[in-house]
Design goal:
Blueprint: H1 2-5, H2 8-20, E1 27-40, E2 45-56, E3 61-72, H3 75-92, E4 106-109, E5 114-118, H4 128-131, H5 134-149, E6 153-164, E7 170-181, E8 188-197, H6 199-217, E9 230-234, E10 239-243, H7 251-258, H8 269-286, E11 294-295, H9 298-315, H10 317-334, E12 342-345, E13 354-357, E14 360-363, E15 370-373, H11 374-393, H12 397-416, H13 423-447, H14 451-467, H15 471-474, H16 495-498
Parallel strand pairs: 11-15
Antiparallel strand pairs: 1-2, 2-3, 3-5, 4-5, 6-7, 7-8, 8-10, 9-10, 12-15, 13-14
Helix pairs in contact: 7-8, 8-12, 9-10, 9-13, 10-13, 11-12, 11-13, 11-14, 13-14
């Protein structure tokens, strides 16, 4: 059913029939856009989301909502999921404005082995029905805000906005809460983010946020940056509530200006300063001594990636063979350096996780904290930075990327100071983790049907592996030459053979 699921015109018709009916309805789906798609290797199924526009024909009013879809390889599994996960939620959401236009907010498209559900119905996140209910959340905030703010306040209103709904088993909501303090004539607005996700991820992230806030605020000599305040975790709702921090993402925007400016010019300073901020934040994380998070050695990361590649190879043998070839090169490069000590890592450190409020930085999204080499965070950050530079500046990106990478690593080394374990070995391990992150990004891009990002990831990977030939010399073990079969033997990427333009993953 995947080819049909990625045909937006065909899905508009099918969703109209399945959710609204062809006749005796005043509502018409006028727009259907495939917003997100992921092939889940471990489960052999696909998760998709559509942004749809539903028009009320008598009034002409057009409303927007999201539809989740899951495609199964086995029709019986599809049937069980529909009956066990979705049907029970229908009655619980009856009367909701979001689902009122639909004859049924859930449906099974048997010919595609697909189930669909209208937001906020989600078989993976059953509590979405509660955390998107304004009245229910007024009660929740009425309970927690007097305790958090340590004063007598009442909640007059609560608006709910869908902020992010692309990752599987996760949804981020933005609440606009009207808070009235005792004796005040009017209420004031407070922005709060709510994350709905698995209980295990919530527990680890919440502990990391509290520990890091305590470390930063309790040490005058530590670089100060904004960290969202944890307001509450509601186990019954699978909901973590975080106060918004000021700032916005801006590194990607500044890259467009930076590449056209002469070295040393003032127009380059904002981006360079922001990279310094990111480096200082990473240094604080890695030297904090926080012991939370699952242990992730480089060998663990390589093995996990190998298993995922093996699954991909079942579906796309040629692409899987290319991925495995790169994986073997990275494994060979890993033998040239000794691992660094493990420390507290963000786990998903990249420029999009850093917010800037003037000159002050802020860090968000602690769902993937772990104990790993410092090079893990740095390598991932630099890989995504190279991807953005390549996207913005194309073939002219090479020298620009190297200049930015050098700036970031130098700033990190200075920020760590005497706590830096071994600069030469760090630089070698960063390059190794860059290769790992680029290979992982290539696989994820294929899973998400993003052909352009897949091409960029492979380009970055090729450059990183070429530089990796000098890892032995960097690590102080003397030059190391790899066999001709490995050295520089980057298979030529042919994305059209891996991923067709219409998301045909065959």
């Amino acid at each position: 059913g995947l080819a049909t699921a990625c045909d937006e015109g065909e899905m508009r018709v099918r969703l109209q029939t399945a959710l609204l009916g062809d006749a005796d309805t005043d509502f018409t789906i006028e727009r259907c856009v495939l917003d997100h798609a992921t092939y889940l290797l471990e489960e052999d199924r696909c998760h998709l989301t559509y942004a749809i526009g539903v028009r009320h024909d008598p009034s002409g009013f057009l409303s927007s909502t999201r539809v989740s879809a899951r495609i199964f390889s086995d029709p019986m599994t599809c049937q069980r999921y529909f009956e066990d996960r979705l049907v029970p939620l229908v009655e619980l959401t009856s009367g909701r404005v979001e689902t009122s236009p639909f004859r049924s907010p859930v449906a099974m498209l048997a010919s595609l082995s697909m189930v669909v559900s209208v937001f906020p119905i989600d078989g993976e996140l059953p509590t979405l029905r509660d955390v998107t209910d304004s009245q229910r959340m007024i009660e929740v905030f009425g309970e927690i805000l007097p305790v958090v703010l340590n004063e007598d306040v009442t909640v007059d209103g609560c608006g709910v906005e869908l902020f992010q709904y692309k990752r599987r088993n996760r949804c981020v909501l933005r609440y606009g809460v009207d808070v009235r303090r005792r004796g005040a004539e009017s209420s004031e607005a407070m922005v709060i983010y709510g994350k709905v996700h698995s209980l295990a991820a919530s527990k680890m992230a919440d502990g990391a946020i509290e520990a890091l806030r305590a470390h930063v605020s309790g040490n005058e000599g530590v670089y100060q940056f904004n960290i969202p305040r944890l307001l509450d975790f509601r186990k019954d709702l699978q909901l973590t509530l975080l106060e918004a921090i000021p700032g916005a993402r801006r590194i990607a925007k500044q890259l467009k200006k930076w590449g056209h400016a002469a070295p040393g010019s003032k127009s380059r300073l904002p981006l360079e300063n922001d990279l310094d901020v990111c480096a200082r934040i990473a240094a604080v994380l890695h030297t904090s001594g926080i012991g939370l998070g699952q242990t992730r050695t480089f060998e663990d990361e390589l093995e996990g990636l190998r298993l995922a590649i093996s699954s991909a190879r079942r579906v796309s043998p040629e692409f899987g063979r290319q991925l495995m070839g790169w994986h073997e090169q990275i494994r060979a490069l890993a033998q040239a350096t000794k691992p660094l000590s493990l420390c507290f890592n963000h786990g998903d450190f990249k420029s999009s996780q850093v917010l800037f409020d003037g000159e002050v930085g802020g860090l968000v999204d602690f769902d993937t904290v772990c104990q790993a080499e410092a090079a893990r965070d740095l390598g991932q950050f630099l890989t995504y930075l190279r991807i953005v530079v390549l996207k913005v500046h194309g073939t002219a990106s090479g020298a620009l990327a190297e200049e930015l990478v050098g700036r970031f690593v130098d700033a990190y080394v200075v920020s760590c100071g005497e706590e830096l374990e071994d600069e030469e070995r760090l630089r070698a391990r960063v390059l190794l983790y860059e290769a790992w992150a680029a290979l992982r990004l290539a696989l994820k891009s294929w899973q998400k049907f993003k052909s352009e990002r897949l091409e960029r990831a492979i380009t970055v990977l090729g450059g990183t592996l070429s530089r990796g030939g000098f890892l032995g010399a960097s690590a102080g073990r003397g030059p190391r030459r790899f066999p001709a079969a490995s050295r520089g033997a980057i298979p030529a990427a042919n994305p059209d053979s891996m991923l067709h333009k219409k998301f045909d993953s065959g």
